[in-house]
């Protein structure tokens, strides 16, 4: 049993390591527009909900898989805000990426407390960005004018 646990830790370490040092990948080649930003946020919201469940249930491999999906989406957000010249939003996305790294490191160590702290940090960053850069629009949200 211990051997398979070590293999798992190694696999998660490799996956997270690739993400931590990955540059801007092919996901950034796809232009993110205001129209496609909303659906991206919906996907991120679902993934963050999954992350919470994976931490609570100590599903470390699944946590790694969710982070594998979140990192490129945050890089897309970073490229979007960079193209708009919004340094504040770029900084917030950078803080979100730091929180994802924190989650990844906690997942590798299989430590619930640090993973929950990373998730709390991620949610705080998301909330700050939403407060600063989005507003209600009918049944959904849109990016605030001037953001």
Write out key terms for the chains shown.
147 residues; Four Helix Bundle (Hemerythrin (Met), subunit A); two-stranded antiparallel sheet
Write the layout of secondary structure elements.
Elements: H1 2-21, H2 34-56, H3 60-84, H4 87-109, H5 112-133, E1 134-137, E2 140-143
Antiparallel strand pairs: 1-2
Helix pairs in contact: 1-3, 1-4, 2-3, 2-5, 3-4, 4-5
Write up this protein.
It is a single chain. This protein is mainly alpha-helical and 147 residues long. The chain has a single domain, classed as Oxygen-evolving enhancer protein 3 (PsbQ), four-helix up-down bundle (Four Helix Bundle (Hemerythrin (Met), subunit A), Up-down Bundle), CATH 1.20.120.290. It is 77% helix and 5% strand. The chain is built from five helices and two strands, in the order αααααββ. A two-stranded antiparallel sheet has the order 1-2. A hairpin with a 2-residue loop joins strand 1 (134-137) and strand 2. The longest helix has 25 residues, at 60-84. Residues 18-27 have low confidence and may be disordered.
Structural class: mainly alpha
Shape: elongated
Assess the beta-strand content as a share of residues: 5-15%
| CATH fold group | Four Helix Bundle (Hemerythrin (Met), subunit A)
Question: On the 0-100 scale, what is the average pLDDT?
Answer: 86
* N→C terminal distance: 52 Å
Task: Give the number of helices.
Answer: 5
Number of strands: 2
Any guess at the CATH architecture? Up-down Bundle
In CATH, what is the homologous superfamily?
A: Oxygen-evolving enhancer protein 3 (PsbQ), four-helix up-down bundle
Count of discrete domains: 1
Task: List low-pLDDT spans.
Answer: 18-27
Q: Percentage of helical residues?
A: over 70%
CA gyration radius, whole angstroms: 16 Å
């Amino acid at each position: 049993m211990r051997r398979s646990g070590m293999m798992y830790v190694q696999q998660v370490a490799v996956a997270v390591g690739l993400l931590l040092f990955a540059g801007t990948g092919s996901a950034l080649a796809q232009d993110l527009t205001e129209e496609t930003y909303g659906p991206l946020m919906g996907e991120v919201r679902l993934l963050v909900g999954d992350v919470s469940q994976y931490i609570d249930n100590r599903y470390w491999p699944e946590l790694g898989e969710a982070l594998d999906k979140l990192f490129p989406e945050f890089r897309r957000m970073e490229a979007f805000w960079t193209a708009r010249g919004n340094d504040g939003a770029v900084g917030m996305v950078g803080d979100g990426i730091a929180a994802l790294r924190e989650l990844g490191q906690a997942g590798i160590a299989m430590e619930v407390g640090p993973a929950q702290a990373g998730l709390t940090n991620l949610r705080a960053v998301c909330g700050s960005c939403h407060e600063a850069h989005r507003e209600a629009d009918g049944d959904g949200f849109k990016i605030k004018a001037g953001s």
